[in-house]
Design goal:
The complex is a heterodimer of chains A (363) and B (463). Chain A is an alpha+beta fold. In chain A, 58% of the residues lie in helices and 13% in strands. In chain A, strands 1-6-5-4 form a four-stranded antiparallel sheet. A two-stranded antiparallel ribbon of chain A has the order 2-3. Chain B has 463 residues and is α/β, with parallel strands linked by helices. The chains are: A alpha+beta (363), B alpha/beta (463).
């Protein structure tokens, strides 16, 4: 009885710690979400947390000092003497604050703290990001023409065209390979496997220029096929290793009995291994999908940013303009680009929880 | 038995690791070795002359290159990309050449990978001539003079532009590119209406400028709004100030030496310039928000206090492109600029400029035609009319500029006694886009004193 209580208590503790960690983890995202609904000028002047009720100095009264007041000397406000520095910082007395409203006009504010909340929100950021910006251009004949930018829709579909094959192809190949490494006996198996593992430590950056040269001579540059190939190659070592650990953990008896019953390797793979590895497949799909979806470097090198093939990450980076003047659009753009990975995650998430192996083999 | 097996596995693993490393090493090596030039700069030297009948541009206008595609890669994105595409549209329609422009925020990093990976674009657009000079030296860039005559180039550009475009190539000096979009940097912006209301006048000399700064402080406002924050490039506006003051406190020759590394940052001449800058920057009464806010204010937001009502600050030194950061709804009646005033009469009022140089990597007739087109003011016309760009070409008509302010910028560059290119863009990346930015930021934020900062900047040259 008391032991059970203890367990329950420790469970509570774990849950609370987890909840706190989750909260800390999501706060930046929350801030981003709030900022994405605020006008750019507001983001500059106040923090996003000001949407919560808070106390702020509000002007209740203004005091006009004589115009000839010397800022370098002592400044008399309501019979009390202050220095310029004090009035710049603000002097607090009896819950009231004295601060310059306009030094040039020698205007001083008397402020009191009041509860406020910021409620100035806009969907302009999202409208611009999704619908495209408008640029006004003066034509040679002197007329002004407004040009509408393309928004994110095109690069969204481009990214899907890149990501889905770049997730499916490597997982498909790697599952075959993992099965072979785990259950087939063939000469050089260990050596080959070690090569695959060793490739995990090779950073993909070292391969960029050599592969780019090959791609240039093969004409694969800037094509979807090229980038599928690149992502497949870069993803294979990890996925193979990941699938290997999962497939090699499956109970041996299962395959032996299947083999006894005359199943071929392919039957075993498709009828037993694949269904049993669904949780592993789902989790590695999420990994690979997220990696490809968020990738910037590989697409930058092999795909480029021509509008016909440009992916989301590049579109978003370019959206801020040559000199970064439209930085406020990043917040909204980040959320739009997050939608797809979130959808994939929630769609596949149940496989994490539901283990298909439950009860198939004893102990 | 089992230990032997593990040992064997271990050996294989180590062998594999060595193999992997060897592969990696080979990759790096082949990079350096295979630097064979993509095209021989001297090879295509049949043309040389530029008579209107046989020039590539004339042929293109005839429709000789219809359906041909020219790829172009550069740092214009978003609004700049739209404006660029708009200004070449008429040319594309007339000639049937498709100029496929690709803009990337990571241009500087990507262009090296592309060129080394034999995937150079036909034309690349460099905002930093320093970066281009590396490719010119490696013999990867086509000499413009191989198809455009000296006479023609002299007609299109002032001598100082052509000098800046001349770079050492694999075999002697070459004209590494043609100048397109440019921007004047030595400008001090102010709020025209508020300035007139307050009764201030435009200063002509440094003394007058300091007097004005002090008057504004006495009236109760900080005169200057300064911000140098720019993400990973934080510090660049400070380098612009240094360059402008350098040009006004020492000879142009010293400036050139400084840019090429012969005059070290630790030299009293450089220190003197920095101290001049500190007269304004580190006076709490002169800078909006004081010294501590300079390093944390974004350069694009720094101009905004000028247009608050009432203005929170009065002066802002920045290049012509800053108009795109002005608060929305501002018209040309609301703002104006004056040249950053002369400090020492001897050196007058020089113009610090920056610009984009278009370099050619593949020699094909249609690429020549496009390059020739870029030497004409027409290639920038729409952009000039839309605003935010100054044309370096002589045949750009002053009437194209949308307002007086921009027209005067072009005039300023044309008439300035000394024109110099932004020094930090000419220095090698380790200095110009490295220690120079960082050292200035450290000094301004008060982390280190001036001498330490200058020493720190100088270490960049050793890298």
């Amino acid at each position: 009885m008391s032991r059970q209580k203890k367990i329950r208590k420790s469970k509570w503790l774990v849950n609370i710690v987890l909840a706190v960690i989750c909260l800390i983890w999501t706060i930046p995202t929350l801030g981003l979400l709030v900022s994405s609904f605020r006008p750019a000028a507001d983001i500059l002047s106040t923090g996003w947390w000001n949407i919560l009720p808070h106390r702020e100095w509000k002007t209740t009264e203004q005091i006009q000092l004589p115009k000839e007041t010397d800022l370098k000397g002592s400044i008399v406000v309501n019979g009390v003497t202050f220095t310029d520095d004090q009035l710049r910082e603000g002097v607090v007395a009896d819950g009231e604050r004295l601060i310059w409203e306009n030094r040039r006009a020698r205007l001083v504010m008397v402020q009191e703290k009041e509860w406020t909340i910021i409620s100035n929100f806009t969907t302009q950021n999202y409208e611009t990001v999704l619908g495209g910006k408008t640029y006004s251009i003066t034509m040679p004949d002197g007329t002004t023409k407004t040009e509408k930018g393309s928004g994110m829709s095109r690069s969204f579909w481009n990214t899907i065209a890149v990501t889905i094959p770049a997730t499916v192809i490597p997982i498909f190949i790697a599952s075959f390979a993992a099965y072979a490494f785990a259950w087939l006996r063939f000469p050089g198996r260990k050596t080959l496997f070690v090569i695959v593992i060793a490739l995990l430590v090779v950073p993909l950056q070292v391969a960029l220029i050599p592969i780019l040269r090959d791609y240039t001579s093969l004409g694969l540059n800037g094509t979807y096929f090229g980038i599928w190939l690149a992502h497949t190659a870069f993803g294979l070592p990890l996925i193979t290793y990941f699938m290997y650990t999962s497939i090699s953990q499956l109970p041996k008896d299962l395959f032996e009995s299947a083999f006894m019953d005359g199943a071929t390797n392919f039957t075993i793979f498709s009828k037993l291994i694949l269904p049993l590895s669904v949780p592993a497949l789902a989790s590695i799909s999420i990994f690979q999908f997220l990696w490809v979806w968020n990738d910037y470097l590989v697409s930058l090198i092999f795909l480029g940013s021509q509008p016909e093939v440009q992916v989301l990450s590049m579109n978003i980076a370019n959206m801020v303009g040559s000199r970064g003047n439209d930085w406020h659009l990043l917040t909204a753009a980040a959320f739009v680009s997050m939608l797809m990975p979130l959808a994939v995650f929630f769609a596949l998430q149940k496989y994490f929880v539901r283990g298909m192996l439950g009860g198939s083999v004893k102990g | 038995m089992s230990t032997r097996k593990t040992k064997k596995a271990m050996t294989t693993f180590i062998l594999m690791l060595v193999l992997a490393m060897a592969i990696t090493a080979c990759g790096g090596k082949s990079n350096n070795n295979k630097n064979e030039p993509t095209a021989n700069p001297g090879k295509g030297n049949e043309g040389g002359t530029n008579n209107s009948s046989d020039s590539a541009l004339a042929k293109a206008m005839n429709g000789d290159f219809k359906g041909k595609k020219v790829t172009m890669f550069g740092p214009f994105t978003d609004a700049d990309e739209v404006k660029f595409n708009e200004s070449i549209k008429a040319f594309e329609e007339k000639t049937g050449i498709d100029i496929a422009y690709e803009g990337s925020k990571e241009f500087e990093a990507t262009i090296s990978v592309r060129v080394n990976g034999n995937n150079a674009p036909d034309i690349a657009d460099f905002p930093q001539p320093g970066l281009l000079s590396g490719f010119a030296k490696a013999g990867k860039v086509i000499d413009i003079k191989s198809f455009l005559s000296d006479d023609y180039l002299n007609k299109q550009y002032n001598a100082s532009w052509l000098d800046m475009g001349t770079m050492p190539g694999a075999g002697g000096d070459i004209m590494a590119g043609v100048w397109a979009r440019s921007s004047v940097k030595s400008l001090v912006w102010y709020n025209k209406k508020a300035f007139a209301e307050a009764g201030y006048t435009v200063p002509k000399t440094w003394a007058e400028l300091m007097k004005l700064t002090d008057d504004i402080a006495k009236d109760g406002d900080p005169a200057w709004s300064i911000g140098i924050e720019s993400g990973t490039a934080t510090g660049w506006p400070a380098t612009d100030w240094m360059e402008d003051i350098m040009l006004r406190t020492t000879t142009p020759e010293n400036y050139d030496k400084w840019v090429s590394g012969e005059l070290p940052f630790t030299d009293p001449v450089v220190k003197n310039a920095a101290e001049k800058m500190a007269e304004i920057w580190f006076n709490a009464d002169y800078v909006y928000g004081g010294r501590k806010s300079i390093a944390t204010t974004s350069f694009g937001d720094a101009v905004k206090p000028l247009f608050d009502n009432p203005p929170k600050a009065w002066l802002h030194r920045q290049a012509g492109f800053i108009t795109s950061f002005f608060p929305e709804g501002l018209t040309a009646d609301d703002y104006d600029w004056f040249p950053f005033p002369s400090i020492d009469e001897k050196y007058g009022t020089p113009a610090l400029i920056s610009g984009d140089i278009y370099a050619m990597f593949n020699d094909r007739p249609e690429v020549r035609a496009v390059m020739e087109f870029f030497t004409t003011g027409d290639s920038l016309k729409t952009w000039i009319q839309t605003g935010g760009v100054t044309a370096p070409m002589n045949d750009a008509d002053p009437s194209w500029y949308p307002n007086d302010q921009e027209r005067r910028m072009a005039e300023f560059v044309k008439t300035a006694d000394t024109i110099r290119f932004d020094g930090s863009d000419l220095m090698p990346g380790a200095v110009g886009a490295g220690t120079f930015w960082k050292g200035m930021t450290d000094w301004v934020s008060g982390t280190v004193d001036l001498d330490t900062a200058l020493k720190e900047i100088q270490t960049g040259w050793k890298k």
